[in-house]
Every structure is written in structure tokens, then in C-alpha cells.
Amino acid sequence: MSLVRVSSYLFLAILLHVALLCWFWSNLSISYHETLAFFNGTTLSAYLSRFGVYLFGQNDFGLRIFFLILHIFNIVLMFLYARSNLKNDKDSLFCTILFMLLPGINAGALLVLEVNITIFFTLLLCFLYQRYNKIPYWLLVFLMFLDESFSIIFLALIFYGISNKNTILIFVSLIGFGVNSYIFGIDIGGYPRGYFADTMGHLMLIFSPLIFVYFLYSLYRFANKKEKPLGFYIAIVALLFILFVSLRQKIDTQNYAPLLLCFLPFMVLLFLSGLRVRLPQFRARYKIPFVVSFIVLIIFTSSIFVSKLLFLVMPYSDNFALRHYIAKELSESLKIRGIYSVKTDVPLQERLRFYGIDRGDRELSYIKKENFRPVPIIYHNKEIVRFYVE
User: Fold this and answer.
1) Three-state SS string across the chain, please?
2) Nearest residue to 221 via CA among 267, 264, 258, 257
């Protein structure tokens, strides 16, 4: 398949993907975690969200537009990175589409999180090294001051430098790890807690369960190889760090899980190589697990896009995406009633604040009280939840 045809398919896939994401964000409300970043955050994602709002107004478009643009860059960068590691452009297209289908990628594509930023710079580092066979030290200097998750990249580069007997890389990585840890800190204290299972569950949700199992198998297979790519070192160090810390404390997987994605092309390479060495008549048994894994992947990813529709078939409090809904519709309902200030619990208060509902003396409650007016929230002609306002 020619590069022109592959590029055309990739363009159409990105176009469809972006259309779905835009439809998805039209239904979203800002979450409490996002309000903390937007109003008080000092991370790069917080500055991006505020800059978007400065340009396009205080609405969901301004809040999320730069994260969507960065997500598109990540897709293109994954394709270029895959091209430098896989045998042909068709394989690179498959790897990129797999990347676009991962539940964690779709869940974090529009949110005010460091996910897209971490993915971008991790893929950029791996691509530049793969393309020019030279570590971009200028990029490492920049990563020292960017985010705490990049301390894991420096740690991985130390092991990679030791493996390849690269003294300069070891020295620079040690400095980078020390500077990054000093600025952001890495908390690995505490007593052993039962967060290991929760962390594994989160990782399975990010990849989908069967894809994650094959991801672990691929890491194991590459661990036995004499020469290992940089992407392997970053992924294995990040995974071991996540699992180790989860034995002692709850870890925010969204900070470190994006580092695992630099190994995705090698997972695809292992699968396609294993498929192609078999004669056509013996490939069916190898394809069946792949088809099942792909179906499960699509189901998990689809559940994100239809999460709002799940309110129609399940109780309000049981929806896994609850924290990303309701606030925008509630603010609109309050404004229709001429109410522009209320008093309620802190998370909801901050979410309403983004949509122009300030803190005031009029109480907003989930519980029906005397002389309180009902404010129902309706999705698709069904009342999902009812608030009461003084």
C-alpha cells in the first residue's frame, strides 16, 4: 500500500475520530478536578486551558480546544514513530488506529490533564531518537522542568545508557532525574496498602483488558531480547514504578500510564511478526484472540462515548462518568430561572462557577426542602436527577 493511500486513510480516520470527540465534548461538563486545574493550577495543562478560555471565552470549546489539537498532533506523531519501527506503512496505520481506539486515549483526549502533554513529549523523544539515532539532549533539558512524570523517562534513560555504555547519556539523565525530582518530588512513602489491584484495574481500563494482557506479554518477550529499544526501557520502568508505588500508596496512573504508549509499535510488531511467520492455513487460530481483543477494545471505547446515554438505563449515581456531566445543564436551568448565584457543596460550586453561577446566599440542595423550587435535569426526555433551589 502506497504512502499516499495510507496517508489518505489516516486523514479520514483522524477526521472521523475528531468528529466523534467534538460530539462527545458537546455533552461534557467540566469536572471538579478540572476546575482545580483551571482556577488554581500551575501545570502546563492548566495554562493551556486558561489560554484557550482567554481566546475563545469561558466555555467548553475554549477549555478543551488546545487538548484536542494536541491529541491530533499525538496521532500524527504516533504514525511517524510507528513508521520508523514497523515494516511498512500499512502496519503503521494499523498501530495508529489502535492508538486512537484505546479507551484511555479517548477518555483523556479532551480533559484538562497532563496526559496529552506527556504522550506528546514521550513520543517526540522516541521518534527523534529513532529517526536520527541520536538522543536530543536539548529536549531532555526542557523535560527536566516540565512535569513530574518525566522523572521516569530520565530513570529509564539511565538504564538505557548503562545498557549501551553511553556515559554522556547516563550523566545527563542523572542530572535530569535529580533536577526533576527536586522540583516536583516523588512521594513513595507510606505503609503498604491495598491499591495494587485498583492500579491494575485502571491500567486495564486504559488499554482494555485483553490488549493490556498482550501488552504485558510483549514486554516479557522483548525483555528476553539482546537489544532492546528505548521505548521498551521507558515502558518497563514506568510500569514497574506504577506497580511498586501502588503497593504502598494510591498512585495517580494518569501521570505515568501515558509513558507506556511508546512501546505500542513494538507490541504491534510482535503480533504481526508472529502472524506472518505462520502459513495462511494456520493463521486462523492466531487471529481469533486478536478479533476477540479488538471487539472488547471497541466495547470499552464505545462505553466512553455513550456514557451520557447510560443515564437512561441506570441510576444517576451509578454512572462511572458522573463527574463529567450535569453541571452545564444545571447552570443553564438556573439561568433560565433568573438565578446566577447559589450556595452548595464545594465540588459542585466550583463546577457551576465555571459556567457563570457564582457563590451566593440562595441554597442549592439535592434534598427536597420546604419552599424550595425543583430544578430537574432532563436528558432525552427523561429526568435524570432533581435539584432543589431556595
Assistant:
1) CCHHHHHHHHHHHHHHHHHHHHHHHCCCCCCHHHHHHHHHCCCHHHHHHHHHHHHHCCCHHHHHHHHHHHHHHHHHHHHHHHHCCCCCHHHHHHHHHHHHHCHHHHHHCCCCCCHHHHHHHHHHHHHHHHHHCCCCHHHHHHHHCCCCCHHHHHHHHHHHHHHHCCHHHHHHHHHHHHHHHHHHCCCCCCCCCCCHHHHHHHHHHHHCHHHHHHHHHHHHHHHCCCCCCHHHHHHHHHHHHHHHHHCCCCCCHHHHHHHHHHHHHHHHHHHHHHHHCCCHHHCHHHHHHHHHHHHHHHHHHHHHHCCCHHHHCCCHHHCCCHHHCCHHHHHHHHHHCCCCEEECCHHHHHHHHHCCCEEEEEEEECCCCCCCEEEEEEECCEEEEEEEEC
2) 267
**Chain centroid, CA 96 distance in Å:** 15
Q: For the whole model, what pTM was predicted?
A: 0.93
**pLDDT digits 0-9 by tens, 136-156:** 999 999 999 988 889 999 999
Question: pLDDT, tens digit, for every residue of 180-216?
Answer: 988 887 665 555 566 778 888 889 988 988 899 999 9
Other Cβ atoms less than 10 A from the Cβ of 353: the count is 19
Paired with 383 in beta bridges are: 378
